[in-house]
């Protein structure tokens, strides 16, 4: 090991020790088990470099955060412009980047959506939609779906659909009803004049990229209109080009009353989320602008949001997601035919792709082998038998090919470790 290698190893040991003692030994153990106990040092586009010089191809994009790639120069430059001047807002005076971000969001979101409330996480964005749905309808019931993932604060968790994450925190917020995802008939059975809102993801991400039947959102829209309820669409993971449209709900041509946005909105540079809504949903906030509030607002984060939307449009990333996603999915489907004993269904829309494994153990081997080949892919919170690919939308064709070849190797490895069934 050379001088730099020795220094990197020493630093890794020091940081590991700090993690074990002061961050969370359980979290460190998981990183260590996956051989991911390395210090991330820099990242550009789809490549992440650790302090010891190892390079990873990011094929996960932090579950939809890095749509424009890592450290996109336009986003970084937009943020830097504000850092030396005034990074955070007083919230009493006006923020130019907030106004400009709101205008951009109104121009790319479905018709009728005009107002924006900035927050800091997907869960906080979902909380805002749930609160506004109740306040603007004067009703309490919220219909959500099995397998849903909306975040881990109490309200968002109440809307989520996996008991494992809910049970230790009960009692959760009352008034939530869960029905099977993709099943409008099930919604019809429970929706009534007491329903404040129906909340859904256009594609369920954490459930393992579950795609509903075509027209699902349109039918939910009609049911909500009939009963005077609001339709909330959670675009935290599917938003900003991920699925091959700007928003997942664009596939169905549906305009929700409220939408939750996060992850990619900060351009992979800043933490930025928002809930957005139409006139009806926003009425309580217009009457009392401090009915819901949060203290920190960042000019720098809003500028990152503006630059991110510009990059997505200027670089044609929505179309890129659609085209490269279709190609990657087709190549994985072809591989799946060679490994029918390992890979089950392959699902995806745009660059949001998942594959099911015949046995849960296959997924673990594939994940480990991909990491071994220096490619990051992801598990699914609500479906342990599934591995997900959500690379930055700027991924190159050569990098896609590298991923396909690596998957071929990983599937073979899974077959040899688990045995040919
Ligand atoms: N909603 C969806 C659809 C998500 O996928 C996530 C996170 O994965 C969230 C909400 C919660 O976002 P955050 O982790 O930023 O709170």
Largest beta sheet: strand ordering: 4-10-9-8-7-5-6
Quaternary organisation: single chain
Task: Indicate the percent of residues in helices.
Answer: 40-55%
Tally of extended strands?
Answer: 15
- Computed over alpha carbons, the radius of gyration is 22 Å
Shape: globular
Q: What's the helix-strand series? A: HHEEEHHHEHEHHEHEHEEEHHHEEHEEEH
Q: Give the N-to-C terminal Cα separation.
A: 43 Å
Work out the helix count.
15
Low-pLDDT stretches are none
List cofactors, ions and other ligands.
pyridoxal-5'-phosphate
Query: Mean of the pLDDT scores?
Result: 96
Helices and strands: which structural class? alpha/beta
The major pleated sheet works out as: 7 strands, mixed
Describe it for me?
The protein has 421 residues and is α/β, with parallel strands linked by helices. It is 44% helix and 16% strand. The protein contains 15 helices and 15 strands. The protein has helices at residues 3-23, 25-33, 61-64, 73-83, 96-108, 122-137, 154-159, 163-166, 184-190, 216-227, 279-287, 299-314, 317-338, 360-372, 397-418, and strands at 40-44, 47-50, 55-58, 115-119, 141-145, 176-179, 195-200, 230-234, 258-261, 273-277, 343-349, 352-357, 375-376, 378-379, 386-389. The strands form 3 sheets. Strands 4-10-9-8-7-5-6 form a 7-stranded mixed β-sheet, sandwiched between helices. A 4-stranded mixed β-sheet has the order 1-2-3-13. A hairpin with a 4-residue loop joins strand 2 (47-50) and strand 3. The longest helix has 22 residues, at 317-338. It is globular, with a radius of gyration of 22 Å. The chain binds pyridoxal-5'-phosphate (PLP).
